[in-house]
Amino acid sequence: MEPTIVRLTSPTTDVIVRCQPFAEILYWGPHLSGFMPEDILTLSRAVPNGRLDVDTPLTLAAESGRGLFGSPGVEGHRDGYDWSPVFTTSEITHQDNQLLILAEDPQAGLQLRSELQLDSASGVLKMRHTLINHHAARYWVNRLALTLPLPERAGEVMAFHGRWIREFQPHRVTLEHGGYLQENRRGRSSHEYFPGMMVGSRGFSEQQGEVWGIHLGWSGNHRLRADVKNRWPPPVAGRGPVSARRAGAGRRGQSKYALAVCCQLSHGSECAQPAVSPLCPPEYPALP
């Protein structure tokens, strides 16, 4: 089956997704003028020494079953079984700047529904996952995370910490090895950790540099991480979670919406501001 390439585009931002045989974001960055589908071949990754004989894709759910040794997008099990699902695309719906991908793992009895929407005016990307259990036995979902790839030149994280009356204190971390993890377990957004981060070229500011930002549309517990994949570009992924649940047959667990934006800044330029208010309220998994 030939890969199906879908391009979501705006005047400032492009998102290019390979939909078959699995869903993978190949490009998320500034608008590409004169883009042709065959140009996507230039983004093919070489197989590094000492690794698997085929390229390990960074799919929308970051699947360990495909050879990824980092943090997977789906963490769960069926009483010790089906803990490493491998999803294959079964249906694609593309309309305007909205993309819906249904992927199945028949052996695990799971379906993954991935929604992507790029706002044509602002260039803000909205994403979420829905995990559906089609097996008679319950499936325990420890975590359901979204994955966004970033280029190698995005080597600096700016996140925020704080306390009462002194929130949103920025701090920066250089990404060279390992990664950065931010987790909130207070049951609300808290003073300490805003559910978002920015990753960009080193030394980026409000006036210059390339910046990719992600904001989880959820004011509760969350875990965000940026990981460096050594010897394997793109090296960084931003992640957002859903808490542990158990899913009976036909039940589903749903991640919260993630809002993401990228921009190239120069003196006098402006970057789109993600708007949370138009979104539907976060939906809790319909689980027992």
From TrEMBL:
<dbReference type="GO" id="GO:0004557">
    <property type="term" value="F:alpha-galactosidase activity"/>
</dbReference>
<dbReference type="Pfam" id="PF16875">
    <property type="entry name" value="Glyco_hydro_36N"/>
</dbReference>
<keyword id="KW-0326">Glycosidase</keyword>
<dbReference type="InterPro" id="IPR031704">
    <property type="entry name" value="Glyco_hydro_36_N"/>
</dbReference>
<feature type="domain" description="Glycosyl hydrolase family 36 N-terminal">
    <location>
        <begin position="24"/>
        <end position="229"/>
    </location>
</feature>
<protein>
    <submittedName>
        <fullName>Alpha-galactosidase</fullName>
        <ecNumber>3.2.1.22</ecNumber>
    </submittedName>
</protein>
<keyword id="KW-0378">Hydrolase</keyword>
<dbReference type="InterPro" id="IPR038417">
    <property type="entry name" value="Alpga-gal_N_sf"/>
</dbReference>
